[in-house]
Amino acid sequence: MNNLSALFQPKAIAVVGASGDPSRIGGRPIAYCQRFGFQGTIYPVNPTRDTVQGLPAYPDIDSLPGQADLFVLAIPAAQVPAALERAAAKGARVAVVFSSGFGEVGEAGRQLQAEIDRVVEKTGVRVLGPNTLGIFSNASGIAPTFTTFLEEVKPAQGNLAIVSQSGAYGAHIAMLACKRGIGLNHFVATGNESDISVADCIRHFAGDPTVGVIACYSEGIKDGRAFLEALLAARAAGKPVVLIKVGRSAVGQQAAQSHTASVAGDDVVFDAAIRFAGAERVHTTQAFIDLLYTLSRRPPLGGRRLGVLTMSGGAGVLMADAASDHGLELTPLPEDARAWLDERIPFGSAVNPVDTTAQAVNDMNLVRDALRVMLERGGHDAVVSFFMNWPDNPSIGPALKQAIAEGITGFDDRTVAIAINAGDAVKRDFDKAGMLVFEDPSFAVDALAASARIGERLREPAPQLQALQPAGDDASLAGLDEAETAERMRRAGIPMSALEVAGDADAAAAAADRLGYPVALKILSPDVLHKSDVGGIALNLQDAEAVRQAARRVLDTVARDCPDADLRGLLVAPMAADGTDLILGGRIDPVFGPVVVCGLGGVFVELFNDVAIEIAPVSEDRALAMLRRLKAWPILDGARGRTRADVQAAAAAIAAFSRFIAGHADRLSQAEINPLRVLPEGRGVVGLDGLILAGDGTA
Amino acid sequence: MNNLSALFQPKAIAVVGASGDPSRIGGRPIAYCQRFGFQGTIYPVNPTRDTVQGLPAYPDIDSLPGQADLFVLAIPAAQVPAALERAAAKGARVAVVFSSGFGEVGEAGRQLQAEIDRVVEKTGVRVLGPNTLGIFSNASGIAPTFTTFLEEVKPAQGNLAIVSQSGAYGAHIAMLACKRGIGLNHFVATGNESDISVADCIRHFAGDPTVGVIACYSEGIKDGRAFLEALLAARAAGKPVVLIKVGRSAVGQQAAQSHTASVAGDDVVFDAAIRFAGAERVHTTQAFIDLLYTLSRRPPLGGRRLGVLTMSGGAGVLMADAASDHGLELTPLPEDARAWLDERIPFGSAVNPVDTTAQAVNDMNLVRDALRVMLERGGHDAVVSFFMNWPDNPSIGPALKQAIAEGITGFDDRTVAIAINAGDAVKRDFDKAGMLVFEDPSFAVDALAASARIGERLREPAPQLQALQPAGDDASLAGLDEAETAERMRRAGIPMSALEVAGDADAAAAAADRLGYPVALKILSPDVLHKSDVGGIALNLQDAEAVRQAARRVLDTVARDCPDADLRGLLVAPMAADGTDLILGGRIDPVFGPVVVCGLGGVFVELFNDVAIEIAPVSEDRALAMLRRLKAWPILDGARGRTRADVQAAAAAIAAFSRFIAGHADRLSQAEINPLRVLPEGRGVVGLDGLILAGDGTA
Predict the structure, then answer these.
(1) Which chain B residues are closer than 8 Å to A324 by Cβ?
(2) Tell me, what's the ipTM?
(3) Is the pTM above the cut of 0.95?
(4) Which residues on chain B are in Cβ contact (under 8 Å) with A321?
(5) DSSP letters along A171-208, please?
(6) Which residues of A touch B256 (CB under 8 A)?
């Protein structure tokens, strides 16, 4: 039994602050529950009335004649904590708190919200909100919500579940979905998320057999790992999750923070997390609705083969362009099928796009036959077509509908979408005849492409979200110098350059003798950051005498120019062989925890932002996939006569580094290996320099 | 008087192949011309009827009782050339040829179309089509077209002119525009463009004072220079041109070619050409209509400062993200204005986005006042707002409309857009109250951003499309070797490395003595392409003896390994100083003519496709702008402690190279300088190697 069952299937609902006016905030939940057929008991609580909307009312919570497992609180914020306690005593398992004036309005509100947290902890009552628009669950008519969208539309039953942090935007989406003819199952607005989060709801939907598609609107995730676990649960259940997360831009993030108490987080990390968990992100309302519609009607596409059927060459090319943008394949029809079509449409085209030209107006069988040939012989996973405003035309619309319906009969495993400009009733008619209906041909292709991506992801083996087990040692990572850092990295399994610390010139020469020539020298000091700028580095020293001279010069120069620096001696390291330099970075994202980033050193990261980012830890396979995602991958891969780098060793190092980050998530804020030199294939990698910033942000 | 005046303002229209049935191809032009109030004479030509749709009909062209300046030909393709000749004798200045079966259907059709060309040349009659849907000109009711969209909608008068190569898609756009409430001025489908092209129509619109906004749909431009000249004419007239050109992708280009006789051309060059001419390209029907609507209602935005007003924080962030994607600035309100608003909306936000929260439902003055403050104090060029489905709600819709109308009063120089979900009548109501109305908040921002871009471009000084004057010399560019190529480039004003050709080792040493050491040697042979692979290169030779030895080695090695190669001796060149390498490329695009491309050498071009492309020739200023557009620009610019390269000299070399390309457009297909070494600032550039492929494609 899922812990949110009282929210989605309460036996009795008490409405505290109940109103006799069904258009008031305290009145709507009662009106809606009655209208949508809620079968349980409803207890209005109102100190001044005997009945509310035809139901017996009670002056306060304590006076309720029976238990209620769901309480609606539509009362001033200050009264909420006490009411929650009284509700707990009357059987409450969950409370839907409409009241605003909490975390979203400054310090006093935050303190009041903390009071709610204390009651939750003490009583075990779960809280939706505060500052929530509430919840609507269609099958059982549970509607403790004051949204107005339920006045505008009567949602059909269906498989779509919506969870939204924003009540207003979530309700807007729900209304658009209903108007589009998508059957709505659940709608939940999570508001301030003092307890029940978007992740909790997604996890519930994953386990609810009546849910087929999950829509999520988020402004900011607080617990990224819980969010990912919820997405993975949906993925394991084979349910597509489509989400819109605002706050992509810096301005948007600021706005998101002024709007709720959420942290918008780093959007790049969010994208990496979403990709990891297999969810699909959209950026506009239109794309959101188009994709939800597609997934609510048809399973995700089985592949990327798209057929395009058009009556206007122009629109055909338009759809072909859109398909190409998304990497869909316009697989051509086989020769004989093409020849057959060519004979039917001498002025058209039988390749793909198949163009019947306006000739189809006079002979709708063309549409039927073209569709059938494409589905039968073209092996297209989906066919998209553009019929302009024909469906609205009373003399050709019905014939067109019949032609399409006949053409697609027997191909239930495929998806056929049409783009038309027509009235709502006509669109619904065509939809009912078994095809997906869109307005804009490009958007139809967008939605099919998203469906294909989702299908691919759901067919892939799901990744594991590894638990964050602290590494065996619990030593602090604060204040490590280069030598100590390298030692930590080495123990974590990352091949680091050999390195010795020498106190003076003679010790440096002795170290160089042990390490082998040529060597490099570097001043060892936590206070000298840009070592080459102050003459703190000497490279390519060929013998002991050269090391001695360079060591004296480096020590003298730095001592003279940085009189206040804490000089701890010299680092001596063998010069590394030539190779390709990677940068590895790791950090603890405030939302999603440890992440690992890699890219080619130098301008590739700096100017082209050519990096791959993943939730840490990653396996060697995923690390290799990161490298392959880089645009600069051919440089590693030995393209165009280059030497192939030891990418397998690089992947192993990235994986080890990512485990180090994840294993020390409690103790570090950032770590870096820069550069990790990747030698030619078979010769491994070597980290030349490392940096660890401890959890409190100091080196 | 523009040469298309007979097309847009005929005095008399003859319809050859006239039908008494107003729904037939030969019937519609007559019915439409009557319905839309054409004041001139209409002459139906029909061999079997005395009257057609109430008008006296004539058996053939010769029998017409008077002259007609516009002829419609709705007759079989084979009869068209002869009919054109007869029409010319009866005063035809332009013919609208509906007939299909020409260039779009293979060789026989192409020959028939060539017959039309001959008649055009002989008689001077201009031809629209063949295979055209025709033309509609709203103000004077000229409607020689068989489009069906005029049955669906009655276009309002307005400032939008549409020209489309595809009749079907063009009519679809026209219909959507009319449904959106955009006033339609002209609609022209150019069909096969045997004579009158999209460019001709744009040029006409540029000079037509009743046209304010030009919409263009293209599948492929045949004469790129004429197209650019037309766009520049529109730009000079201050008229925005919005265009959709399909065939972006390889598959799309194939489809475009199977659809019409057009060449889709290189899409990257097309984008460069569009940018040059200041037009705005869109990629979806939705974006097309949204932008046409915006520009038909309001002048292009005066700047990029956007105010966002929202009732739902979520939608506010969504719009802020979209604005950020486009580089719009969400400038904050000044402190005092913010304080004033903060007091009014304690739970909302007064920054930007301004979020009134749903509180506005109870107090619509909030919307009015917020709008006014934003326009008055925020200095926003545009304000965009999201009101969900409120306008549809009879209890708040009218109040909302009034509040907005009052809020924007007095700010006619600014643009206010709202996104709403509402019925068409309600949307029209709000539109009439002075604001732009959209469905999707993201799309509203997209359209405003496009308007801002267009505004910026129209305020910039227009570039000159330079005439392609052949260079003074008329020598062939075929078969040039490196030394000859370098000499040509040098004469064109590009600093090329000094270079001597030596026949043997002693001559090479003598040349090196003259050039100064160190030098490089390179085998000179048109047959050896990858010179370093066959030992054909020796670098960094310090004295005469080293040159002699290397020369013998190179000559012997290449002679041994490439026995069939035509060995013409050795190139001797001084080693170039260190610098940053550019690649310059030029080619003659089949559509737009000479173009020039530049990028940083090596992986930047190869992996990141980091190139800038322009119509040639370019000025030094435009060349510098090309360099600045490169992502790798900071490498040239001396960022992060790098040495700044001599970018001014590089720009001068690019400009000179582009003049060379343009000046030899009649004789070359491609040219390249790779690398052009850019030395540190003040020290100039030097081209180390050049290549010219002559016009027939041979080196």
Answers:
(1) 248-252
(2) 0.90
(3) no
(4) 246-249, 251-252, 283
(5) HHHHHHHHHTTPPEEEEEE-TT-SSS-HHHHHHHHHH-
(6) 313, 317
Query: Cβ of A285 and B441 within 8 Å?
Result: yes
Q: Which residue on chain A is closest to B444 by alpha carbon? A: A284
Question: Could you tell me the pLDDT band of residue B345, with boundaries at 50, 70 and 90?
Answer: confident
> Residues of A with CB below 8 A from B254's CB?
351
pLDDT band at residue B466 using 50, 70 and 90 as cut-offs: confident
Domain B1-137 part of CATH 3.40.50.720: yes
**CA dist list (Å): A329 to A308, B84, B212:** 10, 45, 40
Q: Do B355 and A260 touch (CB under 8 A)?
A: no
Asked if B252 lies within 8 A of A443 by C-beta distance, the reply is no
CB pairs under 8 A between A and B: 245
Question: Which CATH code for domain A1-146?
Answer: 3.40.50.720
Q: Is residue B577 helix, strand or coil?
A: coil
When CB atoms are compared, the residue of B171, B259, B321 closest to A246 is B321
CA B320 to chain A, closest CA, distance in angstroms equals 5
Domain extent listing, chain B:
1-137, 147-297, 300-459, 498-574, 580-694
Any idea what the Cα angle at residue B339 is, between residues B336 and B343, rounded to 5°?
145
User: Phi, psi at residue A484, to the nearest 5°?
Assistant: -65, -40
- The alpha carbon of residue A63 is apart from the nearest alpha carbon of chain B, in Å, by 33
pLDDT given for residue A697 in this prediction: 41
Domain covering B147-297 assigned CATH 2.120.10.30 in the classification = no
Q: Which CATH superfamily is domain B498-574 in?
A: ATP-grasp fold, A domain (3.30.1490.20)
Element (H, E) at B93: none
Residue B385's pLDDT band, with cuts at 50, 70 and 90, is very high
Q: Do B175 and A608 touch (CB under 8 A)?
A: no
Residue type, A229: E
Same fold, A147-297 and A302-459: yes
Taking CB atoms and an 8 Å cutoff, what residues of chain B touch A362?
none
Closest residue in B to A326 (Cα–Cα): B249
How confident is the model over B401-429, as a mean pLDDT?
95
Most confident stretch, A230-239, A463-472, B257-266 = A230-239
| Range in A143-147, A360-364, B256-260, B410-414 the model is least confident about | B256-260
Q: What does the alpha-carbon distance between residue A356 and residue B280 come to, in Å, rounded to a whole number?
A: 31
Q: What would you measure as the largest C-alpha separation in chain A, in angstroms?
A: 101
pLDDT > 90? residue A139: yes
Chain A residue with CA closest to B106: the answer is A347
Residues A580-694: name the CATH superfamily.
Answer: ATP-grasp fold, B domain (3.30.470.20)
Taking Cα atoms as reference points, which of B539, B533, B536, B540 lies closest to residue B557? B536
More confident residue, B606 or A205: A205
Fold of A302-459: Rossmann fold (3.40.50)
Do B347 and A101 count as a contact with CB atoms less than 8 A apart?
yes
What angle, rounded to 10 degrees, do the helices at B107-123 and B80-89 form? 10
Whole-angstrom distance, CA of residue B343 vs CA of residue A270:
35
Chain A contact set for B314 (CB, 8 A): 164-166, 168-170, 217, 219, 246, 259
Instruction: State pLDDT tens for residues A678-688.
Output: 999 999 999 99
Residue to mutate among A244, A284, A317, A580, with most B CBs inside 10 A, is: A317
Q: Could you give the residue ranges of the DSSP H alpha helices within B103-148?
A: 107-123
* Joined tokens for residue A267: 């959007």
pLDDT surpassing 50 at residue B697: no
The 8 Å CB, 24+ separation contacts for A691-694 are A691/A485, A692/A477, A692/A480, A692/A485, A692/A488, A692/A668, A693/A668, A693/A669, A694/A476, A694/A477, A694/A478, A694/A479, A694/A667, A694/A668, A694/A669
